[in-house]
């Protein structure tokens, strides 16, 4: 069965999908359904709406439910769905859990409390309350760059005390941290799954014991992410390593060359979907930067046959432009212009 | 006129009030109205619902509106109101602005985007969009420990371009940062106000040019915060300094000895309000810690005549317990017990 | 008596002086003596060789001693000297203390252990060992951006246990932290002095209870730093505030526009001293940047009559160039050039 | 040939050895020679004196040379030596390089400048100056938790420009960072080696392309580290994974349960070497903690047959004590004692 191990663990690649928007900035239902089909057809093991990539915080509570409803309806049981269910507080989150349970969702994923940076005791208390009352399996979601961190002893306590907590998605990208979690939890909970949200470490994460990944790049190049997963599990390490290297380049470009998740949105657009403009406004400078980035992404995708080369072709070396170096060149130019009196700073 | 300078700037102490909850965890309207009166009678210059102290992220969008409605109705124009208006995205935030404008609110306060950590260009684009479309004056809210930072050039750009952006509340507590902002903005915008959200630096912030503060401790000891403000403006620096020192002790105890804003909630309760339990669950350990903290707070408040001493009296030295030292003592005790075979770790 | 309070506390402005180097990169003794005289004549209350500004880590152990010997000899008792004495380990540090005691130094300043980031217990153990064995008064030096932090309970323990530890120099710039330290230490140790190393907060630090400062900008504009100190103590707050604002501008420019302490070196050079090249090599880009910075600094110094305006004059607004904005302009230009085919990235 | 690949790259496990001290705190030459032999006999591929584990900053410049001389003499060519050569400045560092070249050292390792946190341009300029003038191969040493970080573009620039820079030791433990470095450097410099200093990620680092490691735990359990290296290269991933998990437990215990490198010193002592007391003083509390830690380490080593179980035996579960949980228990006990009037806080 896709998305699950023989021992019942969640496994494989779950895609934290972006949400296409129409011209008025509303959810573009038709395009979201088309995108859902496309992802499933290209082999992802599951879908993961309302993740960070899906910009869950930028939608209203009503919209978040609508997104899950559309995807669940369209997937129609072909792949399991992990639905982000974090709301304003425990009570609202539990209401969302109940709603998603009614839709036949496989499990919810709940990010640790954010805005306030809470310590381990609070994170424990929060998830314990949810774990005791949820009508549906729960995946913890650790993303310390955005939300309160879930540390190893807290994962262990929750796994030991709450059997409806069945997995953790960890986006720290910290490999020893993953090892420590698996060591602490697996002896008591062989059914507990470990998923990595950090695409740049997918292969080594799988090799040290992870069950799968919730990887934003699988929403852009599902073929590659799936292949990397398969090669790694098959022990074809040389081929897997080459693919992992390529994925780092693509992932870094999408992640660091624009405000997250704009780079991913631009890349999904290049795969043929009308994603619309994101809800976070862009400054004029950012719009210029993004159009430069689109060209770089098009070249990267073209290398793998996922897009045509842009008009004018691609440079031999598609490594991301080194902004530091560019700045040096520019400083030198400006200095020269200034010394000749052509420029007044 | 309270809450405003001769040149129209916001000024004085705005209280970021907590919201009392009833036994079912719902807004306790009666207590909120009583608390509003009490704060106004004790001299705060304005009220500031839906701030971080007010746990705006733990209420639903509907509840946030209800909180402002209650406070605006109860204040009935006696003091100006600054209403936190941040919602899921620019459009929702603007809708809240329109609603609050209809309630006769003086200005809204909008925190920089959170969860995602955005860079200066995005923060600028976000507030520019709001500043261009808001029907009500806007206060920027910079709280880098929780949300994307608003840096000095961004404040300057926004102040220069958007006249409806009229103030910044800064909770960084960074004094040179405040100086840099004032230097960058005041020449072009003499009507732009600078408010500090960091109670532990209120006196020096006022001395270097701030117009006032949005201070959580003013919800606990409005008498003291107001007096500190008055003494500082009157140039009575020795008396102000002594009060500032006391405020640091109280503020630190409320802030660092429990998960924010539980220490403040406990202290407001000690001032005679039924605050209810917060929406973030507490672990058993945290409940024990909180009951210890209540006793410490009661002693601190008793020193200023704001509470009776607890049964059993207060220690001579009410400095917050040094947890590090306590841990050392405990380690020594445990070690001794263990060596005598009384304890097996 | 300069450099000391009636109650024996260190007080006033101690200059953490840079060390001029000759063409071979060796200590330029003649220039160091001339610089020492110049600083004393312009009113600094004391000298502070082997501080961070003095690049103590870039000299050998022998050179560090030589620097103190030259300055002590040249000062000849006119002002007290605080000598940086941190060496590779406690034993070496104590040897340096003994050597400096023999030179008639007023006190040593010892930075917390660096490279390894040590916790409070280790920092305590380190200073306790020194405090018990030093033949000379010791100033703790807290600079958390470079070395292990010295927290408030540690300062209190050391002040309580070691009477030869007589002061702390704190370069965190954190005002509430300074208040907490003073609260914790002064009741038991009225002779213990608090000096701030953060020039951008000098005025408010003095107003909340500091005894003085060890301020790198006093090595560049000793006249201003001294005047700011005097105005603040005299309660002329409006004049002091204006001067503090100017000092923030100058300090920020020297600190953030080049790798520390190159901006300070360039500024001292502009005051008429042959500082030589620093021991940390500069890249070609950095050399260009530094020459641009020199012009900005010359304009800032010219505003106060401390330098002539550079040939070509100064812009109306001498605020530090906003690199972010500059980058935007450049990006726009490049984009335009590229679209017209004039540039191939 | 040990310590080198067919293509000339450094490879394998280099041990960053601790330095035994005698009762007076001086280098214990006899024990250092005995330890050197023991490490070589247990299969480490090379030795690495004056690393962070070797506490290079706590020795004088003369002592650092002495340490390398002793080890080079004792190794007598049996394994290659990588000698830490960072001194106060470029000139002193180059002098050390010359000295070590004369001793027949394979290469030096030079940490990025520390104390001051330098940016990429400065780090580049520093290493370029060294790379152009060194008479011996240079390994860059990136340890961002202690020293200025060496970023990927800087590694690439240095590898491209300086052929005597032949390797990087990276202790960040960041796997995608390692991939990025290899991608950026290897195409132009197939002879450039990548070594990881983060024991907790050794296996996955080797699997994604690293040539070896400089791992502190190889000074404690050289047999295990070597076996992990061999199993990983042989593709015996299940066995390697189990060993990596065990190594994480041991490494974490040595690293996080005491101030670095005291846990490693205690463990080497348990392997039969008289290490003496470290040069960083310990507080009474730390001495107690360390004796508790010794027992835990003895149990961990006993599991692998490297030590006898301590008197009294080992607990079934040798996971590091959870201090958080312990604190909870203690708080509960204290609370109970207090409520019965047996304890007055």
Oligomer: homotetramer
Which two protein chains have the largest interface (Cβ within 8 Å of the partner's Cβ), and how many residues from each? Answer: A-B, 38 and 38 residues
CATH architecture of chain A: Alpha-Beta Barrel
- The helix content of chain A, as a percent range, equals 40-55%
Cα distance spanning the termini of chain A: 65 Å
Question: What is the N-to-C order of secondary-structure elements of chain A (H for helix, E for strand)?
Answer: EHEHEHEHEHEHEHEHHHHH
- How big is the Rg of chain A? 21 Å
Q: Which fold name corresponds to the CATH topology of chain A?
A: TIM Barrel
Q: Beta fraction of the residues of chain A?
A: 5-15%
What does the overall shape of chain A look like?
globular
Strand elements of chain A, count:
8
Overall average pLDDT of chain A: 92
The profile of the biggest β sheet of chain A is: 8 strands, parallel
Uncertain runs of chain A are none
Widest sheet: strand ordering of chain A: 2-1-8-7-6-5-4-3
Give the helix/strand class of chain A.
alpha/beta
Classified by CATH, the class of chain A is Alpha Beta
Number of helices of chain A: 12
Tally of individual domains of chain A: 1
Give the full name of the CATH homologous superfamily of chain A. Aldolase class I
Could you characterize what this model shows?
- Four copies of one chain form a homotetramer.
- The first copy, chain A, has 345 residues and is of the alpha/beta class.
- Chain A has a single domain (12-339), classed as Aldolase class I (TIM Barrel, Alpha-Beta Barrel).
- Chain A has twelve helices and eight strands.
- In chain A, helix 4 links the parallel strand 4 and strand 5 (138-142).
- The longest helix of chain A has 20 residues, at 237-256.
- Chain A is globular.
- The mean pLDDT of chain A is 92.
- Chains in contact: A-B, A-C, A-D, B-C, B-D, C-D.
- The A-B interface holds A 25, 52, 57-61, 88-92, 113-119, 121-122, 124-126, 128-129, 145-147, 259-260, 279-283, 285-286 and B 25, 52, 57-61, 88-92, 113-119, 121-122, 124-126, 128-129, 145-147, 259-260, 279-283, 285-286.
